[in-house]
Design goal:
The protein is mainly α. It contains 16 helices and six strands. It has a three-stranded antiparallel sheet with strand order 1-3-2, with no helix packed on it. It has a three-stranded antiparallel sheet with strand order 4-5-6. Helix 4 (about 70-90) packs across helix 7 and helix 9 (about 205-220) packs antiparallel against helix 11. The protein is globular.
């Protein structure tokens, strides 16, 4: 039996979530609000009584109780409330079919997937920047995964009979057309980043010493962004060149080289040697003594991108670590443990998309090179004319 729900929550979130005005979200950057049939949500009328919105908030609270990171929950919040906007404002299905997720069928689920793939000058009630009219394959897939997880939770909790997104005809990605090439940084790019960090004037500052240690650790350990931000002082073991991290697949060790240890040691000795400092406190701090946040880390990366001229982000450093390890012959099982993958299938991508490694394997095992008559294929001198 489906649960009956009314929303009496007074919580407030960002404008997409619980704004009490009828104005659209404030544009950021060069996003411009436009007037079209895709009106921004009528939040004033809907926010207290809409079961769709209330169930989204209940689901987000469930995610918090499961220990999901703030970044993940923030991403879930953004994408599910955008789905609700599409349902209630863009298509007006709230008026046509009803304001409850139980009214979302397979037909509507396919329609949402199609909306994400459309080439639009406006999306979510906003005018999008030039060149961004179409969502990337990764973005479409991310929206799809989030909505699927939300509806799967609704089914488990009994709010809907069955999730329409389990139907095979609802597709957010096309496996045959996906670009699975792993993007990583070449040695030249890594050198440019490190040379920028190693400038003497930079290493005379707190942020400079800290940032050098941060980037060195990310390059040398392959840990995820969230894992790195959750590190505490007690997690670092400089004697054994390793640290304890807590990731998606549980707790594990990440390792680093002596060169990386030196950068971490410089940071700790210069700025984290206060007497009786709490060993449970965050490892990475801002200049004001507060823990480095995800937003603060993002600002740091963008500034470093601009100064070094290298386009990168934290996860590309993880890709670089994994690709380099694979190129140097680290077997896929060891690499899986280093990266904290739950499935070896994920780790195998770094081998399958590593042309240098595959070239070496092919050269050593070429069918022609190992034939008894392989000498027949060796090049001889150029034949003389008329011979």
């Amino acid at each position: 039996m489906k649960k009956i729900l009314t929303d009496t929550s007074k919580n407030t979130h960002n404008q997409w979530v619980t704004s009490s005005t009828t104005q659209p979200p404030k544009p950021q950057g060069n996003l411009t609000v436009v007037s079209s049939n895709s009106h921004p949500p009528n939040l004033k009328n809907d926010q207290e009584t809409c079961p769709f919105r209330s169930l989204i908030r209940d689901w987000l609270n469930y995610c918090r109780s499961e220990g999901l990171s703030d970044k993940t929950i923030g991403d879930y919040r953004e994408k599910t409330f955008k789905f609700w906007w599409w349902w209630s404002q863009h298509t007006r299905y709230t008026e046509k079919l009803g304001p409850h997720p139980e009214n979302v069928g397979v037909k509507e689920a396919r329609e949402f997937a199609a909306y994400l793939r459309e080439h639009l000058s406006t999306r979510w009630g906003l005018r999008v920047p030039a060149g961004k009219e179409k969502l990337s394959v990764a973005s479409v897939g991310a929206y799809g995964r989030t909505v699927k997880v939300f509806f799967a939770w609704l089914e488990r909790e009994g709010y809907i009979e069955v999730t329409p997104f389990s139907n095979k005809s609802v597709k957010f990605t096309n496996k045959h057309k996906q670009d699975k090439v792993i993007k990583y940084l070449e040695s030249e790019d890594l050198n440019r980043i490190l040379l920028e960090l190693a400038k003497p004037e930079s290493l005379q500052t707190y942020a400079g010493v800290r940032n050098m240690a941060i980037i060195a650790l990310l390059i040398d350990s392959g840990m995820r962004r969230g894992e790195f931000l959750s590190l505490r002082l007690c997690d670092i073991d400089l004697k054994k060149n390793r640290c304890v991290i807590r990731g998606k697949t549980g707790q594990r060790h990440a390792f680093f080289h002596d060169l990386c240890r030196n950068t971490i040691s410089d940071y700790l000795q210069q700025y984290r040697q206060e007497q009786n400092e709490d060993q449970q406190s965050a490892l990475w701090l801002c200049e004001d003594g507060e823990a480095l946040t995800d937003d603060g880390f993002g600002i740091m990366i963008r500034r470093l991108e601009k100064r070094s001229g290298v386009d990168f982000h934290a996860h590309r450093l993880r890709h670089t670590f994994a690709t380099t390890m694979s190129q140097h012959g680290v077997n896929v099982f060891d690499l899986k443990e280093m990266l904290g993958h739950s499935s070896i299938t994920t780790t195998q991508i770094y081998v399958q998309n590593n042309p240098e490694h595959l070239s070496e394997v092919h050269r050593a095992n070429s069918p022609l090179a190992n034939l008894p008559v392989s000498s027949q294929f060796r090049r001889r001198g150029r034949p003389r004319k008329g011979s």
